[in-house]
Design a protein that fits this description.
alpha/beta, 7-stranded parallel beta sheet, 8 helices, 11 strands, globular
Length: 243
């Protein structure tokens, strides 16, 4: 399969290397010239692409599956993206569970109220242009050097009783592969580990049974049940305590 990873960052570079190992032809793009040589370790071909300045998109022709992995909370790509005139049979967008409001409840893909406007605008723009797009909303990205223990190595978490909504990149790679081989189109899925320990539990620190007055108990939880049910998916890393 010929796959384009458009915006090949932390997740994209790992995904590219994984897919090349599965004998796919991977085209990776970046807006940063200094990253071109580095990305050659993760892709079959690497190109500079900036939607606002790139004139020739011919290298994206005859793609079987385009994966949009741009930093969607930045609006710098929005106007240029609308000018993209390449047809893709199948498309996927990497989004974020940051789209859901900071409220104490369990969020599913059915929740539509008070969604974060910049992320929602980006999702809608891609869907309007490519209605077939599957949107994967990732929880906090973890694995390798990314982990809570590194994040809080030199500081104390403000709210250690906060529930975690994270995803290990190993699961992202397997889940993306599922979608590449699936007939599903135009759907949205939360991609989050199914277990949600508190930050304190992940860090292995004790907290008082009652949070301080200025640290209310925070039970915002992102559900990945739709993915589990639809694909019978078993997570490689179900619990962020062991990432």
């Amino acid at each position: 399969m010929k796959i384009a990873i458009i915006g090949c960052g932390w997740v994209g570079s790992r995904l590219g290397k994984y897919l090349v190992g599965k004998n796919h032809h991977v085209i990776a793009t970046t807006t940063t010239p200094e990253k071109v040589e580095l990305l050659k370790e993760s892709a079959t071909e690497v190109y500079l692409l900036d939607f606002n300045t790139t004139k020739d998109f011919d290298f994206l022709k005859n793609i079987d599956y385009a994966i949009f992995s741009m930093p969607i909370s930045r609006d710098s790509w929005l106007e240029g993206f609308q000018k993209l005139q390449i047809h893709f049979p199948k498309t996927m967008l990497f989004s974020s569970t940051g789209i859901y409001p900071q409220e104490n409840k369990t969020f599913t893909e059915k929740d539509r109220d008070n969604l974060r406007s910049d992320i929602l605008n980006a999702e809608n723009l891609v869907r309007e242009k490519y209605p077939q797009t599957n949107i994967l909303r990732f929880g906090g990205l973890m694995g390798d050097e990314r982990g809570l223990k590194n994040m809080f190595k030199n500081r104390t978490p403000e709210n250690p009783s906060k529930l975690t909504n994270y995803i290990h990149y190993d699961d992202i790679l397997k889940i993306v592969e599922l979608f590449l081989n699936s007939p599903t189109q135009g759907e949205t899925y939360n991609i989050v580990a199914p277990e949600h320990p508190t930050i304190a539990e992940v860090l292995g620190v004790e907290i008082s049974s009652e949070p301080a007055e200025n640290q209310p108990k925070f039970e915002r939880l992102i559900s990945s049940e739709k993915l589990i049910q639809d694909y019978h998916y078993t997570f490689i890393h179900p619990n962020p305590k062991y990432f």
